[in-house]
Amino acid sequence: MVDTPSAARRSERARAAILAAATELIRELPYGKLTVEAIAARAGVGKQTIYRWWPSKGAVVFDAMLELYTGPDGLVLPDTGDIRADLRELVRGAIVELTDPGFEAFLRAMYIEIQQDPELGAAYRERLLLPQRAAIAQRLASGVRAGQLRADVDLDFAVDLLLGPIQSRWSVGLPGLTEAYADATLEAALGHLSA
Which end of the chain has the smaller Cβ count within 10 Å, N or C? Predict the structure, then answer.
């Protein structure tokens, strides 16, 4: 007797296919030309399957982004005991992601969507931005406990110091997001944060 695939397995396969299709298409098409129809066709599902799980194209793209950014344990930063080295990896990694031509289109699309869709913006903050910031703050707190950072460091402000200049430059399309810029940003932040 042949086992009939369960609805749960079929659903998970369809969900994975939809998110993979969205990820592929956002790298191939300008966001304005990406449609739910195109995602459905690439994934081999009907449009109604997508709309059963997501209210909009932006919501699909956001979930595809979450798949790329988070693992089973969420975002965890390395803690080698060397705060400078660990933060260097963080800021350089941020620039690599932001300047990857395929990934940049994906990020810019999300940036547009969260500005226009308040519900999606709230989901972005709750499910991606705040957990990322918390992971960075946790690594900074470890640096405080190790005596590598000042005891009175405002962790939220410290995250802004590390990533704000990079995000600002990227959001307005300024050139110069290089490894050297990442290192200069880190050194400026550590000038304020170091014990």
Answer: N
Question: SS3 of 49, please?
Answer: helix
pTM for the full predicted model: 0.83
pLDDT in tens, 15-66: 999 999 999 998 888 888 899 999 999 999 999 999 999 999 999 998 988 8
User: With 0-12 CB in 10 A as exposed, 13-18 as middle and 19+ as buried, what is 62?
Assistant: buried
Q: Could you tell me the two tokens for 104? A: 């940049």
CB–CB of 22/8 below 8 Å?
no
Task: Please report, as a single letter, which amino acid is at residue 22.
Answer: A
DSSP state of 194: B
The H or E element spanning position 138 is helix 130-145
Burial of 87 (0-12, 13-18, 19+ CB in 10 A): buried
